[in-house]
Specification:
heterotrimer; A mainly alpha (280); B mainly alpha (288); C alpha/beta (475); A: 280 residues; mainly alpha; MetI-like fold; 2 domains; two-stranded antiparallel sheet; 14 helices; C: 475 residues; alpha/beta; D-Maltodextrin-Binding Protein, domain 2; six-stranded mixed beta sheet; 20 helices; 46% helix; disordered N terminus
Chain lengths: 280, 288, 475
């Protein structure tokens, strides 16, 4: 059978492959190369070695964005997962209106980041105005504004995954725990939590990468104001690239570093998950 | 008897407990949709009052009827943007589902160096952030005359292939080979086998991929912004952002109108396909 | 006075009629016609040529071949007017003209990403010599173009050392402190007013005293503040980080007898601080809200009569007029006094930061089409009328002599020159980079909010200038 299929390479694989080369592989390789170049368009690139990378770390906005992003990611990962799990826990108890609640909580996910950003800008600025403050007064306001926005958007998504996880816990296991006299707290920590570990892993991974790569919401909500202080990495790269004449190469170098960070997070996560699965 | 009484008590207690939770979650749900309602209310308010009195109900002097909507549509070309978004999303998703499922089936049935390279490249592409390729990708797309909605479909196929191929591959591995072999022995060519036998089995994964890609492509801002010829086409997110950008100062009225109009199709889509969306998300998460 | 008033009324009526889609103007139209008859002696060339428009045949558009025009417009205030004009041209000649307007503060980045595209802009703008440095290679030599021949003086062109012409200014603008005459007069009549007529305000100290007194009497005057909000949102911050910052630079250049520098000394930064303090402490809102105040906020505050003073320029007229709350004769413009030497004779700030450049890397057909289009804009009736009347531009073209905008702010600028004041030149075109402006802007905002010190502004101004100038040199 393999032989029969093999001849069909041009039909089955080629279209995707060509698009993939064009949409990913070629830009990726060129991107790596350009990070060592000085350029304004691709055709005028001049190789300058590690110059761009040196500039990256002397750029205070990048270092700031790095820490800002890391902190943001840490806060949102914890908050979103705790909240999503809590909501999922209660929504699997069979209370009235569960379906409606689920529908409502999930909805913000489908709305795009740009639109979400402006929705929350209106609400948060309206509230802050009562205290003579605005979202762009300082990076702290922007930070918590983004955190609230992200929670609002992502809790529903993660909740759905947790609900599926909780519902997959075998009923007889819970019965057995109950018969053994476990109270509901013990059931939660000793039975349910370990059983939904795979969901937790997935949700952590998803929130981690979503937060780390956040761009649209950041652009719409604060656009990095004031003075690039609420700028996360993705936005910092974008504004370096398109906002500063002569800094295109540095922007590309930042992008490479960004890629390495994302890859490192993904691989670490993957490694930890694997190890845990083996233990189980 | 005693057992029944005990059951009743716990049922009553549970019901009480449940009522409290229902009330709590009802309130939470209202709070959850409040931001959207707020935007809706403000969309009928005169623009000068929106940022000054965001929580006021528009009455009297503040009420402007549909002016904000008309303004917003005119300034951003939202109607055109809607159709551009629709075109790009529908066709990109279709193309992605068909092409990547074919590709995934091939590479999970034919085992050689090349197919495993492709598989690992796809896996790799999933962890590369868009910023890494944004400039070069838009440059290549331009050189190849892909700065239009049709070209964008190809770009989406290329950049979105990784995740889809990966998910289809995961599913293909679980399809028993016997079914396909039987079909081939019956004289089906590989293409027929794929479309008549394999694809129907893969339907759940197709839906998952389609849902995930739709959510991404419909809402994507930066890729189309950098790739597409902005003076001819805008997608909805670009149109919204254009309001913030294109006009020196933000017309808050038009912004509110546009936001409401941008949310409506999403809600319609969500309500009509809710079951698939939630299932798709769960399935996607388990495999992703 | 009566004549002036008449011409102003006439101007308003005309502008309202011309602004298509601004609601019913049927009641005003006859009034304008009537006024036109009466005011033959009055100097209203715009009105006359308007009337003549229907008689004169449209100037035939130059042969443009099969090219297309793509104009990346810098001025959001005139976005709609450009789009309308483009439509007219396309209807007349069949040549497609697209106008895209960049967000405020993002022109450079939009230009960069658009230039990288296959269908790049054929017509774009630079803000002067500094902006030109980035785009030099993209500028088509305009020396032999018709539009250059129509330019009244080389002062309005970016002429290179080899004699080639890279850019042509298409609008001359003036900014200062726009004020509401009615409100200011109300103030002059209050008890214990520091000044009794606007003529007395000819230096910083008087101005400061007046502003602070107005602020103290704001409830009595029924206003929210002396100044509109000094918003530091990207749609408004250029008023301070660029236009206001021009003042200390102007005085420093003047004192040192130079016209540009790689190392600013910041001699007049204390004056900059004084005026900035005045703006933020006597405004319609708390300084802590400035970060999200937009240009639209300030414009609507002024247009609704909530503030007396509004630092902006001739281009702001459209926004003010659109609100239909303040009549034209209520508008005046004061120079920005910061306490420099001899400021009694200082005038408004006049110059240009809008130079048209034609993309040399476009197809020849597109270049020809673009050149034909811009020449059409400055020679045809429709184009000239759009420039002068719809957009309210004063232009440096000889063809535009009969087309002067009916803009009371332009009139104020002309009066200012007639009064013998020395116009302040636009030295902000010598600012080393956008990055420098951003640095100054952020520091200004932090200082205003109380989250930063004034020293940071000084650092951003002086040290930032040196760094950015050196970086620009290195490239």
């Amino acid at each position: 059978m393999e032989k029969a299929i093999k001849r069909y390479f041009p039909i089955f694989v080629l279209p995707t492959m060509l698009a993939f080369i064009l949409g990913f592989i070629a830009p990726f390789i060129m991107g790596i190369y350009l990070s060592f170049c000085k350029f304004t368009t691709v055709t005028d690139a001049k190789f300058i070695g590690l110059e761009n990378y040196k500039k990256v770390f002397t750029d205070p906005t990048f270092v700031h964005a790095l820490w800002y992003t890391a902190l943001f990611t840490a806060v949102t990962v914890v908050l979103i997962n705790v909240l999503a799990f809590a909501v999922a826990w209660f929504l699997t108890k069979g209370i009235k209106g569960t379906n409606i609640f689920r529908t409502v909580f999930f909805m913000p996910n489908l709305i795009g980041g740009i639109i979400l950003g402006y929705i929350w800008q209106l609400l948060l600025n309206g509230i802050l105005m009562q205290f003579n403050r605005t979202l762009t007064y300082s990076a702290t306001y922007g930070f918590w504004g983004l955190v609230i926005l992200m929670c609002w958007q992502q809790v529903g998504y993660m909740m759905i995954i947790y609900i599926a996880g909780i519902q997959n816990v075998p009923g007889d296991l819970l019965e057995a725990a109950k018969i053994d006299g476990a109270n509901s707290k013990q059931i939660l920590t000793k039975v349910t939590l370990p059983m939904v570990m795979p969901s937790i892993t997935i949700c952590t991974f998803l929130t981690l990468t979503n937060s780390f790569k956040l761009f649209d919401q950041n652009l719409a909500l604060t656009n990095g104001e004031p003075s690039n202080m609420s700028e996360m990495l993705a936005l910092n790269i974008y504004s370096t690239f398109y906002g500063r004449a002569g800094w295109e190469g540095v922007g590309q170098a930042k992008a490479v570093i960004f890629f390495i960070l994302v890859a490192a997070i993904a691989l670490t996560q993957n490694y930890l998950t694997r190890r845990k699965e083996v233990q189980q | 008897m005693a057992k029944k009484a005990k059951d009743d008590v716990s049922r009553v207690r549970r019901a009480k407990h449940g009522t409290v939770l229902t009330v709590f979650f009802s309130l939470l749900s209202i709070a959850y949709v409040y931001p959207i309602i707020l935007v809706f209310i403000n969309s009928f308010k005169k623009k000068a009052y929106i940022s000054r009195k965001p929580f006021a109900i528009p009455t009297g002097k503040m009420f402007v009827g549909l002016e904000n909507y008309i303004n917003g549509i005119e300034k951003t070309g939202l109607i055109d943007a809607f159709f551009v978004s629709l075109f790009i999303t529908v066709f990109s998703v279709l193309v992605i589902v068909v092409c990547t499922s074919m590709c995934a089936w091939y590479i999970s049935r034919v085992h050689n160096k090349m197919t495993s390279t492709i598989y690992y490249l796809c896996l790799f592409s999933m962890i590369v952030p868009f910023q890494m390729v944004m400039f070069t990708l838009s440059k290549i797309a331009n050189m190849l005359h892909l700065s239009n909605p049709v070209g964008l479909i190809i770009v989406y196929l290329g950049f979105g292939a990784g995740l889809s191929v990966f998910m289809f591959c995961g599913f293909c591995k679980s399809i028993p080979l016997e079914i396909e072999e039987a079909a081939m022995i019956d004289g089906c060519a590989p293409l027929q086998t794929f479309f008549q036998v394999v694809l129907p089995i893969m339907k759940p994964t197709c839906i998952t991929v389609a849902i995930l890609q739709t959510m991404w492509i419909w809402n994507d801002y930066l890729l189309p912004y950098l790739v597409i010829d902005l003076k001819r086409w805008k997608t909805i997110p670009i149109a919204v952002q254009y309001l913030r950008g294109g006009y020196g100062s933000i017309d808050m009225g038009a912004m509110m109108g546009v936001l409401v109009l941008a949310i409506i199709p999403i809600i319609v889509f969500y309500i009509s396909c809710q079951k698939y969306i939630i299932e798709g998300v769960v399935a996607g998460a388990v495999k992703g | 006075m009566k004549k002036k008033l008449l011409s102003l009324v006439l101007g308003t009526a005309m502008v309202t009629t011309l602004l298509a889609g601004c609601g019913s103007t049927s009641t005003e139209a006859p009034a304008s016609e009537a006024a036109e008859v009466e005011s033959e002696a009055v100097e209203t060339p715009a009105a006359e040529s308007e009337a003549a428009e229907s008689e004169v045949a449209e100037a035939p558009a130059a042969e443009a071949g099969d090219g297309a025009v793509y104009y990346l417009n810098f001025k959001p205030e005139q976005a709609e007017q450009w789009e309308a004009l483009a439509e007219v041209y396309t209807e007349e000649t069949g040549v497609p003209v697209t106008v895209v307007t960049a967000s405020s503060g993002t022109y450079e980045s939009t230009l960069k990403s658009e230039m990288a595209k296959e269908e790049a802009p054929t017509l774009f703008q630079v803000n002067g010599p500094v902006g030109l440095a980035t785009w030099k290679d993209y500028c088509y030599d305009l020396k032999d173009s018709d539009v250059y021949k129509n330019l009244s003086s080389d002062d309005f062109a970016l002429v290179n050392e080899d004699g080639s012409v890279s850019g042509i200014a298409y609008v001359i603008e003036t900014y200062g402190i726009i004020y509401n005459k009615t409100l200011l007069n109300d103030y002059f009549e209050t008890e214990g007013a520091v000044a009794t007529s606007v003529e007395e305000i000819n230096n910083f100290d008087t101005f400061k005293a007046v502003v602070e007194d107005i602020q103290a009497k704001k409830d009595e005057l029924g206003i929210l503040g002396a100044f509109t909000s000094a918003g530091m949102d990207a749609s408004s911050d250029w008023r301070f980080k660029t236009h206001l910052a021009n003042m200390p630079i102007y005085y420093e250049y003047k004192a040192d007898g130079i016209s540009s520098t790689d190392a600013i000394k910041g001699t007049y930064l204390d004056n900059y601080k004084a005026i900035w303090d005045l703006y933020i402490n006597n405004a319609t809102c708390e300084p802590s809200l400035l970060s999200s105040k937009t240009g639209e906020d300030a414009a609507s505050e002024f247009a609704l009569g909530e503030a007396v003073f509004y630092q902006n320029g001739t281009w702001a007229y459209g926004d003010i007029a659109a609100a239909e709350e303040i009549s034209d004769e209520e508008l005046g413009m004061l120079p920005i006094y910061i306490g420099g030497e001899g400021e009694e004779n200082q005038g408004l700030c006049t110059g240009s930061e809008n130079y048209w450049c034609v993309n040399a890397k476009a197809d020849q057909a597109d270049i020809d089409a673009t050149l034909a289009f811009i020449n059409w804009v400055v020679t045809s009736d429709a184009g000239r009328s759009a420039l002068a009347n719809d957009m309210g531009f004063v232009t440096p073209f000889t063809t535009m002599a009969d087309y002067l905008p009916a803009n009371p702010l332009v009139a104020a600028a002309n009066e200012d020159i007639a009064a013998g004041h020395t116009a302040v030149t636009w030295n902000f075109t010598t600012m080393p980079s956008e990055e420098w402006k951003n640095g100054v802007g952020s520091a200004l905002l932090e200082y205003a909010q109380g989250t930063g010190e004034w020293d940071a502004v000084v650092t951003a101004f002086v040290d930032g200038w040196a760094t950015e100038a050196a970086a620009a040199k290195a490239e």
